[in-house]
Design a protein that fits this description.
Length: 161
């Protein structure tokens, strides 16, 4: 049981770190331009230097929603990690980690909303570069989506022994 708890804890910490990286780094879309490799994230457009991400007025609200839900997912994941640690020491024997699992599933839902909106609104837009493909931050966000769902379900099923 201790090995299972340690494993879940390590995967949870890895998920939090990957969420930080995928939100902060600017490599959601990568392509090439006349100036070389160019990458766009949630915040900046980077070539050799980074500038503010130019977004059309009709896509600006969508980008702000993606930014907000990615930040919310980080917050909920950290709250779930703190709740897990607190419940690990204060929860009675035989009880389940319901609160931790519920908060982690809210984190999962935030990631789902953010990445789905980004996929729907920004994937096909190649205004600034050609040969566009998804960068590692986009892939990390989907990996965090899977991990947070698995962790959330495991927390709901897990009993303290």
């Amino acid at each position: 049981m201790l090995v299972l708890l340690a494993g879940i804890f390590v995967v949870h910490i890895a998920t939090v770190i990957m969420l930080f990286v995928s939100t902060i780094a600017n490599v959601w879309m990568v392509g090439s331009s006349t100036f070389g490799t160019i990458s766009a994230g949630l915040w900046l457009l980077c070539n050799k230097t980074c500038t503010q991400l130019p977004v059309s007025s009709r896509d600006e609200a969508s980008l702000k929603v993606v930014q907000a839900f990615m930040i919310l997912s980080i917050i909920f994941s950290l709250v779930a990690l703190i709740l897990f640690i607190i419940q690990l020491f204060t929860l009675e024997k035989g009880k389940r980690f319901y609160m931790t699992g519920a908060v982690m599933l809210v984190c999962w839902m935030c990631i789902l909303i953010a990445v789905s909106i980004y996929t729907a609104r920004f994937t096909g837009k190649t205004l600034y570069y050609t040969n566009a493909h998804h960068g590692y931050c986009f892939i990390l966000a989907w990996i965090c989506f899977c991990f947070s769902f698995i962790i959330g379900i495991l927390y709901l099923v897990l009993r303290k022994k």
